[in-house]
Amino acid sequence: MIEPLGSGDPKQLGPFTLSGRIGEGGQGTVYLGTDPSGERAAVKLLHVKFTGDAMARSRFARELRAAERVASFCTARVIAADLEGDTPYIASEYIDGPSLREQIDRSGPMSGDDLERLAVGTATALTAIHQAGIIHRDFKPDNVLLATDGPRVVDFGISRILDSTGTITSRAIGTPAYMAPEQVSGDDVGPFTDVFAWGATIAYAATGQAAFGAKSIAAVLNRILNHDIDLTPLPEPLRGVVADSVSKRPADRPTAGQILLRLLGHPETGDASTVVMTQGALVANPETGPFPVVKDIASKEVDEQTRAFRVPAPPQKPPSPSKRTKWWLPASMAAAAALVLGGVAVVVTLMVNSPDVAPKESPAPSRSGPYASVLEKAKRTGKLTIGVKGDLPGVGFGPGDEPPTGFEVEVGRWIAKELGAKNVEVREVTAFNRVQALTSGAVDLVVATYAWEASRNDPVTFAGPYYQARNDVLVADDSDIRSAADLRGKRLCVRPGTNAAEIQKWLAGQGIAVEPVEGTDAGDCMDMLRTRLVDAFPGDDIMLAGFANREPVKYRVLGLGVGSARYSVGLPKGDVETCEAVRHAVVKLFDSGTARGLLTKFFGNAVFTPDRSIPVKVPCR
Fold first, then answer.
1. Using one digit for the tens of pLDDT, what is the confidence trace for 249-261?
2. Which three-class secondary structure state does DSSP give residue 17?
3. Whole-structure pTM over 0.90, yes or no?
4. Which of 86, 105, 138, 535 is catalytic?
5. What is the CATH number of the domain that holds 220?
6. 74 and 124 share a domain?
7. Which residues are 540's β-sheet partners?
8. Is the pLDDT of residue 585 over 60?
9. Three-state secondary-structure class, residue 384
């Protein structure tokens, strides 16, 4: 429940306009904030006041950078922070849903699919957090939010950022029942500490009672150190996984990745891969999971290549008005089906008709043909085709370019290879035919300055974004235009149907009038800028930098930063599995330094400072 702001509450923190209170805890007050692009965030104003200690600031910045790198599998990403000002804050993705504690208080213990989704989703989140080198340190029911697309773990990394004392008291405030024995005794903590808290949290969800709860903190700590908990309400295999997780000895606990592998029915070999975390996110989502654990005919647990996948029901004659009920084929029957289908275990969706409700309209054919997703096609065939917009220098490729090259071409190749494709074909698409190319199967995914906001009604699932663009203007570097005010009275090349109108409106709002000069297209505007027929050429920053990069003299992206456009990857409608994997690949693209290298390679000759941070992701739908 969002409460109104109080008289002493701030109205603004950094770029976020605050509109209400989400809650308050030991670390700070959490507000609902909105950034200039309209994106909502949970903005935590920290109680801690940081000093001018350079080493402390460096440590905070290092920890925060790590938290920002966490892949958003079942988590709420850190998107912005200021730990050095007078009002230190950390902003995360806003998750609209109750906490696990609120849900249990309201509806009682969880069981069945709800409990399974909770366990898998939170294990997926912890795996992503730990793989980024982060220890949560405060995993508890209050930090698990139940969103419509599954559980999300929040506040990861923040406890470590704030906690510099290493004392029991600082870590025990508010959450002693979810501390691990090593925290109580003052020993070193690690990912295994989060695993213990995960086990205690799942036990709480299944029973409605804190696993180590007691009437005093001293009694709670004694139970953590010396008593086992009753796990009989938990079903197998979850009971065994939780029992191992709350072992008193850290070395006896599984890793978060091993927990996830066990819950999904995979062998516990190595850590959970991107594919496994993608599967975990799907299982945790009420709309796409849970899938049953399927074993092959030899009763050996399936690996990544032979994991269960869904096969669409065969075509049927249009039935009379009916109600369709979905049934999952039992694992034993799936194993029998494996004999017919070359040893591959499958789960079949059966449609049973009864005459009361009209059938739903058949969905559009999947682009991946015989494959359940683009991700599956990449892993099975090793081949993918990406669509990329042409005619933008440095961004896409022009007609006849061989081999095709450009920022988005290389981003597309990177993503396709991260999905498992070794052979990647690039085809040119336009803004007018890219949806048709995707739905017809001509391409598997589209990477083509795909502005999500402008294309959100297309029959496409969007993944990413892979770059956060801003509307801006390009000027000659030797001109006297150094700020927005310097554009007053200058000639601005405008093109109908482009962001030039937004730039003009923004300038007018600043009291800055310009002289519009009509151009036919972006190339025409660049020609007029080069010959000094206009003083500025509007567009999004990365497109402008592409035009500037190829010129023998320097041109500068002014830095207006007006609005934003999230350039996202287009996928077949409903391909959530591939969408999640693409989002993870984008994080890796930036985290590995590859994005920085590509931005320098294709735009390094322009006077331009691109946004090199990992873009805030949009949900897969």
1. 998 999 999 999 9
2. strand
3. no
4. 138
5. 1.10.510.10
6. no
7. 471
8. yes
9. strand
Asked if the model's pLDDT at residue 608 lies above 60, the reply is: yes
In this structure, what DSSP letter does residue 315 have? Answer: P
Band (22; pLDDT cuts 50, 70, 90):
confident
Q: E strand or H helix at 475, and its extent?
A: strand 460-476
- In 3D, which of 378, 445, 386 has the Cα closest to residue 418? 378
Alpha helices in 468-509 (DSSP H): 500-509
Q: Both 137 and 184 in a single domain?
A: yes
Sequence-distant (6+) residues with CB within 8 A of 339 are 297
The number of folded domains in the chain is 3
Q: How far apart are CA 588 and CA 91, in angstroms?
A: 21
Domain ranges, residue 116: 100-274
Please name which of 247, 589, 283 lies closest in space to residue 419, comparing C-alpha atoms: 589
Q: Is the dihedral of CA 494, 497, 502, 505 positive or negative?
A: positive
Q: What span, in angstroms and rounded, lies between the C-alpha atoms of 290 and 113?
A: 7
Helix, strand, or coil here: 469? Answer: strand
From 36, 65, 93, the end of a domain falls on 93
- Domain membership of residue 359 (yes or no) is no
34 DSSP β-pair partners: 17, 40
In whole angstroms, give the CA distance from residue 160 to residue 27.
11
Region of poorest pLDDT, from 20-24, 113-117, 215-219: 215-219
For the segment 289-335, what is each residue's pLDDT rounded down to a tens digit?
A: 655 443 322 233 333 332 332 222 333 333 333 222 222 222 322 22
Respond yes or no: is residue 252 known to be catalytic: no
Domain boundary among 251, 274, 297: 274
Could you tell me if residue 232 is inside a domain?
yes
